[in-house]
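Subject: Protein entry, chain in single-letter code together with its fold tokens

Category: Structural biology, sequence-to-fold work with a learned token vocabulary.

Notation: Tokens come from a learned vocabulary of local backbone shapes, not from coordinates.

Start of record: The labelled sequence and token lines come straight after this line.
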Amino acid sequence: MGTTWLTEEQQRAWQGWLELHAQLTARINRDLQATSGLSHADYAILVQLTAEDVPDGTLRMFELGERLLWEKSRVSKQVSRMEARGLLARRDCADDRRGSFVDLTAAGRAAIESAAPAHVAMVREVFFAGASDEEVAALGALTDRVLARLAAAD
């Protein structure tokens, strides 16, 4: 059975997506660093700890990793770096000696509150400017379907 290769249009779209992802990630990193002193990884963690479903700004370390789709060691190293800067605090879990909690500090909350407006403006300018409501809806539908297939495969 032979391989069914991507069509020319699929190949163009796929390569465009890969380049877009790489360039957008680099731009996000540069802009966050320039406007707030935060890395993209810092910002990603702060977003999770300020999510609506995390009203107390606390998550278990493993929950944070699951939300970010990061390996345990990456989460631990990033939390340690942020803890050293006063953005987060780590505390042991009384119910599970191997587990720990990650708590958002006042400095961490202030950092994301300061960084978010410029970040949102950049996303609007770079990603959504010029896109119609229909294009945004189509992109949302496509990402939902791909994410559902990925989840089903796991």
